[in-house]
Write a sequence for this structure.
């Protein structure tokens, strides 16, 4: 199974025996199945993914067919399909410890971009950057600045971040847009964990912004006055007591 995104997500193992030409077709089948049939999923353990499916007979047949064909080309996958009621089918997917990274990527692929992932999920750096709207290089920069915790490593050496990192990155970006420096953002994140800390810092930032607005308003009014006075020569204006520009006193 492979396409550009599947490769980026780390889903396709090198041991996959499906012919290369057929891999994009298999990927498309799984993507359609995920989109139409998976109601939600959970992760009982690192090597165990549980998919809760719609309960129609057609969905059950598709689940059994796909799992059988996938097991044939990637034998480390173990699938178990069970019917839990008239409108509920469960697909259990298990992998050995050496393939946990592939299960991480499979879980991430089922989740549409921009939607929350289940607790305990992990995201590759490319996926996290896309979710948060930043460049992958930004992740490492934030790690060096202490804004983002160092990731864990999958067995394949890939950098894995907890899904909660998406929210943290969005908080950082929002704080920057509000005028906080990265140093202040780090302090702000820490303050948010203490009672009253966030309120004190946002109040101080508001006072700073209001001072800057007052300064900018004064600059704007002076520029308007200079335009109205017809100021065209700074040297001439400097010697004119009527000039509205704020030249320092002699």
């Amino acid at each position: 199974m492979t396409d550009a995104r599947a490769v980026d997500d780390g889903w396709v193992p090198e041991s996959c025996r499906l012919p290369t030409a057929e891999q994009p077709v298999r990927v498309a089948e799984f993507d359609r199945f995920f989109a139409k049939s998976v109601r939600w999923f959970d992760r009982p353990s690192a090597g165990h993914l549980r998919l809760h499916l719609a309960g129609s007979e057609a969905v059950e047949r598709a689940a059994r067919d796909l799992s059988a064909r996938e097991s044939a080309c990637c034998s480390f996958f173990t699938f178990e399909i069970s019917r839990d009621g008239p409108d509920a089918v469960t697909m259990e997917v298990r992998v050995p410890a050496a393939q946990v990274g592939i299960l991480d990527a499979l879980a991430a692929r089922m989740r549409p971009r921009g939607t929350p992932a289940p607790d305990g999920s992990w995201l590759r750096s490319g996926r996290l950057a896309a979710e948060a709207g930043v460049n992958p290089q930004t992740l490492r920069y934030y790690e060096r600045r202490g804004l983002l915790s160092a990731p864990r490593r999958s067995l394949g050496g890939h950098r894995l971040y907890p899904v909660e990192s998406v929210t943290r990155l969005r908080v950082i970006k929002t704080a920057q847009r509000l005028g906080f420096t990265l140093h202040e953002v780090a302090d702000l994140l820490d303050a948010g964990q203490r009672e009253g800390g966030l309120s004190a810092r946002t109040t101080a930032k508001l006072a700073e912004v209001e001072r800057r607005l007052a300064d900018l308003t004064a600059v704007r009014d002076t520029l308007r006055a200079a335009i109205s006075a017809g100021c065209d020569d700074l040297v001439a204006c400097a010697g004119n007591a009527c000039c509205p520009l704020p030249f320092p006193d002699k």
